[in-house]
Amino acid sequence: EMRVLTGMGCQRDAAALDAPWESFTPTRTFTAGLALNWVGFYVNVQYRDAQGNLSPVYCDDISLEGSPARTP
């Protein structure tokens, strides 16, 4: 299983990862709002195996850059 939290910076402490457990999937799609500048989007994940062993909390920060729409 895994639990995923987005948008709140990196949560290295498992107690701060307040997200429900869900079935493991190798890929996920997230939606992020994009402004006319840089936006940091954080993804935190923790895994749990069949014996209940927990992984560390892993985090990645994804930077998105927005720009105005081009006019023809």
Percentage of residues assigned to helices = under 10%
The major pleated sheet works out as: 3 strands, antiparallel
Strands across the major sheet, in which order? 1-2-3
Helix and strand sequence: EEE
Output the radius of gyration. 15 Å
Mean pLDDT: 86
- Number of helices, counting only DSSP H or I runs of 4 residues or more: 0
| Strand fraction | 25-35%
Distance between the termini: 48 Å
Q: Low-confidence runs (pLDDT<50, min 5 residues)? A: none
Shape: elongated
Supply the helix-strand structural class: mainly beta
Number of strands: 3
Set out the fold topology.
Layout: E1 2-6, E2 38-47, E3 58-65
Antiparallel strand pairs: 1-2, 2-3
Molecular structure report:
The protein is an all-beta fold and 72 residues long. Helix content is 0%, strand content 32%. The protein is built from no helices and three strands. A three-stranded antiparallel beta sheet has the order 1-2-3, with no helix packed on it.
